[in-house]
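Sugar hydrolase (Ligilactobacillus murinus), 291 aa
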Amino acid sequence: MEYFTKMIGDKGAKATFYLQTPNAEIDSTRKYPVVVIVPGGAYFWTSWREMEPVALDFLGKGFSCVVMEYATEGRDFYTKNFDPTKEVVSAFPNPLIDLAKTIALLRQNAATWALDAAKVNLVGFSAGGNLIGQLGVYWDTDWLEELVGKSKTLYAPNSLCIAYGATLMAKQPLLKGFEQLDHATLGVDKSQKRADLANVLDKINEKTPPTFIWHTTKDAIVPVKTALKLGLNLEENGVPYEMHIYQNGPHGLSLADQRTDGSAKYAKSSAQVATWTKLYCNWLAENGLAF
């Protein structure tokens, strides 16, 4: 395995690579499918629980993995030093640009890093689900191509996995108590126009890549009805998808076992929800996006 980190863009984003290395005992010419993991954290910060443990899980399943940490101001800014006049590095579309650049970097180095450039799969948790959703609906736009400065074919995702993803995130009355969320997502300019761009639930189109969705009915942060509406929008646009709605479990389950659970009495562990990784890998294989 190769392990290294690269800075992305000029805002402080970084990507950490966990790459399979071909071996002659198996196949010295093998090209590995990729899982790009994008954590949540409300654009305030990036959650470790949704980064390295997830990467190591999928690495063990045979994928090369990349953890993409979009730039944020960090927890202390929002809990101790909040300044609503400060333009934040997490403001749309900065994370989107850096995610696109990360995927372009993967494809540009696919031969060197033994990657299958046609099997670049994105997994996004919570706010990370919002971010990969943005790429899923905007990758083919000219305005994003201009901002990224690279051909859109280099950063087009082959699939999305939206895990309790906040496809509706900015200016959402249901998210009461998260007033600073708008600032983290939009920055100083909180116009409805910018909010509409950051929210992707109703932006699904025929060029959105195949999508795997999982959510729980008991999620008190991101309402399950957004996942159900996402599935309906994919259906109406003819986009292949699979959706799993688990009955129980709070927001932020990650792998849903003790590897990512530091809560009281392991409240973020669920044998039922933990099946999502197997279901997702089977779905990737069924769509020709694994080995």
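The chain has a mean pLDDT of 96. The first strand starts at residue 2 and ends at 8. ok done for today
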